[in-house]
Every structure is written in structure tokens, then in C-alpha cells.
Amino acid sequence: MIFLVLSISASEPYSDMFEDISLGFGYLPVLWGLFTSFTFILCYGIAVSKNHIYPFIPAISDTGAQIPEANIFSEFFNFSIVLMTLSLIVRYLQFEMLSRGFDSPEFLLKRLNKVALGCGLVSAFGGTLIANFPSKEVSCTSVFPNHFQATSA
Predict the structure, then answer these.
(1) Measured between alpha carbons, how far is 123 from 95 in angstroms, rounded to an integer?
(2) What is the CA radius of gyration of the chain?
(3) pLDDT digit string (tens) for 61-72?
(4) Contacts (Cβ under 8 Å, ≥6 apart) of 72
(5) Cα separation of 109 and 122, whole Å?
(6) What string of DSSP letters covers 95-150?
(7) How far apart (Å, rounded) are the C-alpha atoms in residues 128 and 81?
(8) Dihedral of the CA atoms 125, 67, 138, 64 (nearest 10)?
(9) Which residues, other chains included, contact 90 with Cβ-Cβ below 8 Å and sequence gap of 6+?
(10) 1-27, pLDDT tens digit by residue?
């Protein structure tokens, strides 16, 4: 018991670090996850109410394939991708700032941080493709083979 009291009193100089309980940029990933879930649930609800899909175990691609849910999905998912990109960039910059004073062993971590940012940005670009090209209008199987046939002739 005395040891616990001494350890608490010994840590008083560091108590200033824990006074700020604000989230900082920690709300971005949470906001991204909640907004993306809201987007899926909203589009599912609209598709079910318009009888565009079977309400039990629907195909996710059919949920946003018809107007109006396709347009709503496109706009909301594009905003979700913006939130995801902001979260990726903030995370990258946070790690860069935290690892600035370290040199030797963190070089690999800095490179891994850049690779993670690159993979995240590529997945964000893929998300914009998913949002803006509904499955019933354009599919990869119909675009790419025709492109390759046209260029090979």
C-alpha cells in the first residue's frame, strides 16, 4: 500500500501529460467507420423499400446498382474515401513526427510507413472506382477484354 502511494506521488511531474483528454485526430478513423457503415445501411434500406433487392442475404453489388440508391451510395462513399484518405495522411504524418529523432533502427519503420501510406492511397483509389461505377453499368469483364481486343488488332 505504501509502495502504491509512493509510486503515485513519484509520478506527479508527469501528470501534466494526461490533463488534455481531447481526441486530437483520433476521431477520424471512428468517423470514417461510422459514416461508411451508415452509407451501407442507408443504401440497403432504400433498396429494400423500393423492392430492388431481396431483403434477406442480398448481394452487396445489387444494393447500389439501381437509381436512387446508386447515386446516394456514390456520393456518400466518395465522402467516406475522403475521410479515409485524411485518416491515412494524418497517421503517416504522426508517425513521421514521432520518429524524427531516431535514426538507425527506425529506418525500416519509416520505409514501412511510406509503403503503408501508398497501399492505403491505392485502396482509396479503388474505393472511388467502386463508388462511381455501379456493377450493372460497367464491369471489369466487359471493359478490359474489349480494350485488349481493340489494341491487339
Answers:
(1) 20
(2) 24
(3) 777 778 888 889
(4) 42, 43, 46, 64
(5) 20
(6) HHHHTTT--STTHHHHHHHHHHHHHHHHHHHHHHHHHHS-TTT--HHHHHHHHHHH
(7) 7
(8) 50
(9) 25, 28
(10) 444 344 444 445 555 555 655 667 788
